[in-house]
Structures are given as structure tokens and as C-alpha cells.
Amino acid sequence: MVPVLLFLLLLLGPAVPRETHTGPYSLSFLYTGLSRPSEGFHSFQAIAYLNDQPFFRYDSEGRKAEPLGPWSHVEGMEDWEKESELQKAREDIFMVTLKDIMDYYKDREGSHTLQGLFGCELRNNKSSGAFWRYAYDGQDFIKFHKEIPAWVPLDPAAQNTKQKWEAEEVYVQRAKAYLEEECPGMLQRYLPYSRSHLDRQDPPSVSVTSHVAPGKNWTLKCLAYDFYPRGIGLRWTRAGDARETESGGDVLPSGIGTYQTWVVVGVPPQDKGPYSCHVEHSSLAQPLTMLWGKRQEAKAEGDLGTRPQ
Ligand SMILES: *[C@@H]1O[C@H](CO)[C@@H](O)[C@H](O)[C@H]1NC(C)=O
Ligand SMILES: *[C@@H]1O[C@H](CO)[C@@H](O)[C@H](O)[C@H]1NC(C)=O
């Protein structure tokens, strides 16, 4: 699927660990509409996120908003019947917009995608940011500028969409009010039910592995997994000096609400090291150091978070 907006979404999590008690917290929605649903993809799908955690989903097949993960056990946080009705109405509008754009481009053939991403952020219980934007076939299409307030076209066809969405002054005021009042209000309402999950600190499990082919460099891999939140620092040192990593560094979701990442370094056969992998994460009282020696595979130098540097 088109990755542009999804990538933006991954950046929404709290960027600064240890500040999570005051936020930022975000509530965001990712909508995807397909002109030609295929196996496994419905014509419309909505996923709602609290920070980077999916908390409910809705699609054109089931037409029901369904809480996800830990939120499926929470009582009284949301009226899911009402939420389903709201998502149904939004689906209809969304699919009309997709059809309008295809009409504009006479894009009758092939399969086309519209994505919408909107949401808001709270810091210290105050609204601290909001956004609303759309992409058509993976390209920026239109976005809302809430200070003007107005829709800003980012594509020729979006001029039409703008006219429609601004046909009455009140439409624009409503969009602004949604982002600045309604959305932060929902987030304030959701937080008491969600904070323990969003603020949790899952320390990384770390493993160091190595392999070598005759006459080639050693390849050392330091892998950190099962951690939350997303922010982490991972690096190799040789006798205390930082080494350039050969590959890795991307932090990827593990699919169960936690993250994983790794860094790889190449070590010439005659190099005696010593090499260590250092891991910093908000869940660790102290950075974690894993020492690699050629004889002993991956030997942990200290216990999780307890060893002074
Ligand atoms: C956040 O602010 C709202 C009003 O804007 C208030 O009702 C609510 O109690 C506040 N929550 C916290 C945790 O301070
Ligand atoms: C072996 O590792 C060294 C140091 O990391 C690097 O400069 C060199 O390019 C590597 N050689 C090969 C064949 O990968």
C-alpha cells in the first residue's frame, strides 16, 4: 500500500522519552479508500491511533468500529455504536471525494487510492498541534491550514475539492473547530483510559551475534527488540570509540505494539577489538553495554538497567 502517510504517522509518537507524563499525546485517524478493492483490502478502511498505537478500526465490509488491543477490554471509554455511525458517514463522504478526483482525471481505468490523515496533539493537557491532509495515488493532494483557515490544494484536481469543501463559510469553521476543540476534547476524554498503556516503559531485549566467512570481515549484529516507546539509541564502539555502522538503524514496529531495531558493523579478521554495543532507552536507568569478544559469543556485560556506566 502507499506508504507516504503511514510514514508520517510513525513520526507522531512521543519523540522525547521521559516527558510522556505531560505528553505529547496524539489522536489520529488514517483513512484509505480504494477504487478497486482486492483480496484482503476493502474499499474503505479507517484506523484510529492514540500516539502510535492502533486503538480502533473500521472498514466498509463490517461497518463497525472495533476497539483493538488493550482497548478491546476497556469499558466506558467510547460508545462504539455511535462511533460506527460516525465512521459510516465519513466513509460515504470519503468515497465521494475519491470518485470526484477520478472523474476529474478521467481515471476510470486501473485502481486508485485516496488516503486521509488527520488528528491532534496535546501537551500538558493543552492543544499543541493538529493536521488534516490527503494523498491521491501516493501524492500529496490537499491539506487544511487552520490559521487561515482554508484548504490548500497541492494538486490541480484539488482545486475542485477545495471549492466543494469551502462552498459555505461554516464548513471551514467546522473543520477548524474539529481540529482545535473536538479532537483535543476526545483525546482528553480517552487519556484516563489509555495513559497506562501509552506511558508504559518496556525495556529492550538485546542480543549480539556474529558470523564470518573465511578471509572476510566479521559481521557483528546488535539487535534490540520488544521495547516501547519507539525512541532508542544503538551504537557500536571499538575500544570506546564510536564506529560507523554498516547497515541497520531503522526502528520497525514488531506488530505487537513494540519496536525492534539493529545495527551491524564489519570487523577485519585481524582486529582484536574490543567491540561493544551500547543501548540507550527511556526504560533503562543506565545505558546497557554488550561486549563482543571473538572467543566468547555475545557476553552481556551488565544487567538490564542496573549497572552504573
Ligand atoms: C484537561 O483539561 C480539561 C479542560 O480543558 C479538563 O476538563 C480536564 O480535567 C483536564 N485534565 C487533566 C488531567 O488535567
Ligand atoms: C571490513 O571492515 C572494515 C572496517 O569496518 C571496512 O573498512 C572494510 O571496508 C570492510 N571490508 C569488507 C570487504 O567489507
From TrEMBL:
It comes from the Eukaryota. Belongs to the MHC class I family. This is Zinc-alpha-2-glycoprotein. CDD domains: IgC1_MHC-like_ZAG (cd21010). Residues 204-289 form the Ig-like domain. Keywords: Glycoprotein, Signal. Transmembrane segments: none annotated. PROSITE patterns: IG_LIKE (PS50835), IG_MHC (PS00290). Pfam families: C1-set, MHC_I. SMART domains: IGc1. Residues 1-17 form the signal peptide. The lineage of its organism: Eukaryota, Metazoa, Chordata, Craniata, Vertebrata.
